[in-house]
Every structure is written in structure tokens, then in C-alpha cells.
């Protein structure tokens, strides 16, 4: 039952999210996304098409997270599961857009930042 509720919540969030756009993000959020995607493009040597797709994926992820925070109590199991699914969707799309070598470069860069 709990899993059905989580999937239903996730599906609802995705449907609601699909009606949202980047216009619903604050200027600060847009700048943060642009900065992160620019860093990804620099580190991973993304071409313009890949950069645009990653920007779209990242924007969708941030919008979905915002919608989740607005509709589900933080710290609950439903929140954690839905957030995990949002992140899985991003990673799946990210893997489709980028090559293995690019992904390795990004992981190496992330580890070096820590």
C-alpha cells in the first residue's frame, strides 16, 4: 500500500510538474542551474546539444524537487522515496545524454571537489 501511494504521489508530481516551466524558478535557482551546467560542460566537454539537454534535465529535476517540497512533508518516507525517484530520473536521462568517458570525467571531478 505504501509503495502504491509513493508511486501515485510521484506520478501526480510528474503530471503537475509537466505543466510547470523554468519560468517558475527564481532568478537565483536559474543562475545556480546555469552555473552547474556550465561547469559540467567545461569538465565533460559537452557539445551544445548535450549542454541543452542537460540544462533541461537539471531544470526538470529542480522543479520536481520544488514541487515535492511544497506538497510533501520533508523527512517522511514518501518524501524520501519520491526524491529518490526524481534523482533516478535525472541520472537516467544524464546517462542517455552523455558518453561513458564524459560520465567518468564528471565523477572524477566530483570526487576531487570533496
Task: Report what the structure shows.
By secondary structure, this protein is mainly α. Helices cover 82% and strands 0% of the residues. It has helices spanning 2-18, 27-44, 48-71, 77-97, 100-113. Helix 1 packs across helix 4 (77-97) and helix 2 packs antiparallel against helix 3 (48-71). The longest helix has 24 residues, at 48-71. The termini are far apart. The model has no long low-confidence stretch (mean pLDDT 85).
From the structure provided, what is the oligomeric state, counting identical versus distinct chains? single chain
Count of discrete alpha- or pi-helical segments spanning 4 or more residues: 5
Mean pLDDT: 85
Largest sheet: none
Give the helix level as a range of percent.
over 70%
Identify the overall geometry. globular
Write the layout of secondary structure elements.
Layout: H1 2-18, H2 27-44, H3 48-71, H4 77-97, H5 100-113
Salient structural properties:
mainly alpha
Question: How is this structure best summarized?
Answer:
With 114 residues, the chain is mainly alpha-helical. It has 5 helices and no strands.
